[in-house]
Amino acid sequence: MKEFDNVNNSKHYTEGNFECIDVMLETQGKQTVMSFCICNAFKYIYRASRKNGIEDIMKAKWYLDKFIELNNE
Question: Any long-range contacts for 61-67 (C-beta under 8 Å, 24+ apart)?
């Protein structure tokens, strides 16, 4: 059974056969997904103090790490 956590493996993004970000890459392209990663990181940082605190900062880091990964491909 797959283990889920809200930062690295959210259940709502992996319920089907494919992870959402992988489908986004396939359908929207790398540059669009890289821009999405920056925007999502900003969103999580912006709301962290008012919503989920460190969890939101960790989510922002995940998106920044994904941006870096895609940039280095």
Answer: 62/7, 62/8, 63/37, 63/38, 64/37, 64/38, 66/21, 66/37, 67/34, 67/37, 67/38, 67/41
Asked if residues 41 and 60 have their Cβ atoms less than 8 Å apart, the reply is: yes
Q: Hey, what are 33's tokens?
A: 């997904």
pTM above 0.85, yes or no: no
**Contact between 20 and 14 (Cβ < 8 Å):** yes
Give the residue with greater pLDDT, 6 vs 51: 51
Tokens 């359908």 locate to: 27
